[in-house]
Automatic annotation (TrEMBL):
<dbReference type="Pfam" id="PF00160">
    <property type="entry name" value="Pro_isomerase"/>
</dbReference>
<dbReference type="GO" id="GO:0003755">
    <property type="term" value="F:peptidyl-prolyl cis-trans isomerase activity"/>
</dbReference>
<keyword id="KW-0697">Rotamase</keyword>
<feature type="domain" description="PPIase cyclophilin-type">
    <location>
        <begin position="13"/>
        <end position="162"/>
    </location>
</feature>
<dbReference type="InterPro" id="IPR044665">
    <property type="entry name" value="E_coli_cyclophilin_A-like"/>
</dbReference>
<dbReference type="InterPro" id="IPR029000">
    <property type="entry name" value="Cyclophilin-like_dom_sf"/>
</dbReference>
<protein>
    <recommendedName>
        <fullName>peptidylprolyl isomerase</fullName>
        <ecNumber>5.2.1.8</ecNumber>
    </recommendedName>
</protein>
<dbReference type="InterPro" id="IPR002130">
    <property type="entry name" value="Cyclophilin-type_PPIase_dom"/>
</dbReference>
<keyword id="KW-0413">Isomerase</keyword>
Length: 190
């Protein structure tokens, strides 16, 4: 497995990305100054068009799926699926311990597998505050958490509408997935 681990100065400017979905648009502000590797990875997926025509394919909603589901977190998960042939190389985990970012309402974070350095193109947005996803949290046995790297700055109502579309299944059927029509950079945010 090849894992990219670029220097911490690989990205310094704040960047903005809009995701057009079947339920509307929302914009995220990336914290490239604090999470440069993860932000650069997300932008590589955006710039290469890998998020265009992808989807939000998993919605974790404990109120529907039971209080034991996924440590009580509420998130929408989208982008590319783990280990997809078109995914870019996996990247090293930028822990919230080092970035100082936290998993709060509207936080954009990179998905990972059981191994810490396994982030690819799967991302999620938090609905509510979720410290169990930060370094030292309970979501993974290793306690390393996930790599928070951005924040929704416009269109949070669209994120909440996607989350609210959850049915009884955490992993959505193909016809129930919420399509990401395209993802693109925007100047200055909203």
């Amino acid at each position: 497995m090849r894992v990219l681990s670029r220097g911490r100065n690989s990205m310094s400017a704040v960047a903005y990305v809009t995701l057009e979905t079947a339920l509307g648009c929302f914009t995220v502000q990336l914290q490239g100054d604090r999470a440069p590797l993860t932000s650069a990875n997300f932008l590589a997926y955006v710039d290469s068009g890998r998020y265009d025509n992808s989807s939000f394919f998993r919605i974790v909603n404990p109120s529907i799926q039971g209080s034991n589901g996924a440590d009580g977190i509420s998130v929408i998960v989208g982008g590319t699926r783990p280990l997809a042939a078109s995914n870019l190389p996996k990247i090293a985990l930028e822990s919230t311990l080092h970035t100082g970012l936290q998993h709060r309402h509207g936080t954009l974070s990179l998905g990972r597998e059981d191994e810490a350095d396994s982030g690819e193109g799967e991302f999620f947005v938090c609905i509510g505050d979720h410290p169990q996803l930060d370094h030292g949290g309970s979501r993974h046995e290793d306690g390393l958490g996930f790599a928070a790297f951005g924040q929704v700055c416009a269109g949070m109502e669209v994120v909440e509408a996607i989350w609210g579309s959850a049915g009884l299944q955490e992993y959505l059927s193909a016809e129930s997935e919420v399509r990401i029509l395209r993802a693109y950079r925007v100047a200055g945010g909203v």
